Predict the 3D structure of the following.
Amino acid sequence: MAFWRKSTYQGEFFGLVLLFSGVLTGCFLSFQHRREKDFQVERLDSRLQMVNLRIADDWLEGAQPDSLFLHYASHFDGLRLTLIDTLGHVLYDSEAVGREASLSNHLDRNEVQQALLLGQGHTLRRHSSATERDYFYSALREQEIIVRTALPYDWSLIQSMATGSRYIWITLLITLLVIFASFLITRRLTQNISYLRQFSEKLDRGEEISDLGKFPNDELGALSKHIVDLYARLQTALAEADREHRTALQKEQEKVLIKRQLTNNISHELKTPVSAIRGYLETLILNPEVDPEIRRAFIEKSYAQTERLQQLLQDISLVTRMEEAPRMIEREECDLGEIVREVIDEFRPKSEGRMVISTNITSPMPLYGNQELLSSIFRNLMENALAYSGGNEIRISLLNQSGEAYRLCFSDNGTGIEAHHLDRIFERFYRVDKGRSRKLGGTGLGLSIVKNAVLFHGGIIEVRNRETGGLEFLFTLARHA
Ligand code: ADP
């Protein structure tokens, strides 16, 4: 069933070739058969015409019809001899000797008419009412006489006129060869089609296209290969686009998650100073008679909390600006040497002589960037070193520089940080010691600002504990980021 329903291109093509060969062979065989038959009839007629000619000659020379008949009857089985005049009267008939006058006029006989008209003629098969048999007739006109010989149209005559079968076998053999050759040719021609069919079926099933076999080395083969190659390329491109799309989606989801975390963290961070302020103010409102010293202490504490709140809001705004709209942050020609000097000048008095701050950085150190962010890098690192390191030395060094970037190191000689915290200290609101950080006014955003500011300036930053104690931040800043 499936075979018939699913006819292949080769099947159809080969079927057409078969049909064409069949029709051609049939026509040829029937034509050849007719020719062979005509040839056999002509041969028999020629033999009888020779006899007719001799009989006519002998008779005209005076021989008796009976003796003539007897002479030739021995050469042909069942031979019948009829002599007719040009008016159609039967003069002698070997099957009706003595009864000739009773026979009908023979002018209407086909072979007789031909003989009168053309000199000779024959009739392949006709029934004789005189003998009640079928005959093959052959007639010849010689002067005023028509000699007609006839042979019974029986099995032996049919056999003698049978055509040979050699040409049939030869024709069939040639046809078979043609069919076989056309099978090979159509198979070769349709191989590409079948490759393409396999290819489209694989596509339909959504299978991966790998090697479909060797394509024949011709134009159609090249075309098929080209189509398959194009599809393979399309498949790769689609897979690539899909992968990119998924990565982008994942990044987007991560961003949303981080934003949600940030919002949660921010509201959590804001709650602490706000509820502290509220507590102090509530106490003061509920106790108007409170001791003036306590009142002052509460007001000062509230003020300190508002400062912390302000710092927190500033930091949040900076981080958000760097992450959400880095393009909105302006750039200008800056001098890194000057920025470092200003930060050192600002922090020296704050260190109250506890810390020795040193640097090998000198002006000018030109850099195209954002003054505020560059300053925030050194300020935050400085604040942290003062607050958490517990050391007595801070060093800001220029390690090397190129036309592209500066490589810097910010280090202290304090306690450093336990190794398992190092990977996370750049995260927003990550603190090693929460209580201590809050107490010291830390927002938990300092190092996050530092990292983002370095990234904004086309650099990278890493942190490690120094072998001799303390922490060091190694970072680069691009000169023309
Ligand atoms: P914070 O607002 O708490 O200062 P940061 O992001 O600036 O937040 O710092 C994260 C944590 O890293 C700090 O809480 C502190 O514990 C630790 N830290 C930062 N700098 C140093 C340093 N120089 N020495 C030791 N610990 C440090």
